[in-house]
Amino acid sequence: MPLTTALRNTLRDKLQQRRTQMVADLRDESINDEGALAVRSHRGETDDEAVVESMDAVEIASTARDATELAAIDSALQRLDTPDFGICIDCGAEIEPARLLAEPTVLRCTACQQRFEHQHHTPGGARL
Ligand SMILES: [Zn+2]
Fold first, then answer.
1. SS3 category, 8
2. Alpha-carbon torsion 54, 127, 63, 124, what sign?
3. What does 48-90 look like in DSSP terms, one character per residue?
4. Which residues contact 76 (CB under 8 A, 6 or more apart)?
């Protein structure tokens, strides 16, 4: 059964809401970046280089993850009106509507996603 218009509209709303939220979060993070810069300018006095460096690592990881998710959301929004949306990119089966509602950016059905994650041991990259 193809995706209903109502389901597509629901998914579009969810994706757009998440996109708006992420853009707002990124704006918050740039404010935090200024705070981190203030810490950095004082590190000669505080001797906290290790702390500052680990903060940098967390910030970089978080920015990379946000960029990846934002790209996934944009791609899902673009595919939403095409016949490919909701179709597993590996086996061509329809992805369960409940799965799409939980995670509108998924590209694979549950079985293929599990196989994909098993084949691509992404250390620390586990999602869901
Ligand atoms: Zn599949």
1. helix
2. positive
3. -HHHHHHHHHHHHHHHHHHHHHHHHHHHHHHHTTSTTTTB-TT
4. 11, 15, 85, 104, 105
Q: What is the mean pLDDT of residues 42-66?
A: 70
pLDDT digits (tens, 9 = 90+) for 26-40: 777 666 655 555 445
Span from the CA of 109 to the centroid of ligand 1 (angstroms): 4
CA–centroid distance, 113 to ligand 1, in Å, is: 7
Bridge partners (DSSP) listed for residue 94: 87
At which residue do the structure tokens 């702390």 appear? 51
Q: Ligand 1 center to residue 118 CA distance, Å?
A: 14
pTM over 0.85? The answer is no
Q: 82 vs 14, 18, 88, CA distance in Å?
A: 17, 21, 13
Q: What is the pLDDT of residues 91-125, one digit of tens each?
A: 999 999 999 999 999 999 999 999 999 998 766 55
Map out the domains of the chain with their CATH numbers: 5-119 (1.20.120.910)
CA of 94 to the centre of ligand 1 (A): 8
Give 90 Cα–ligand 1 centroid separation in angstroms: 5
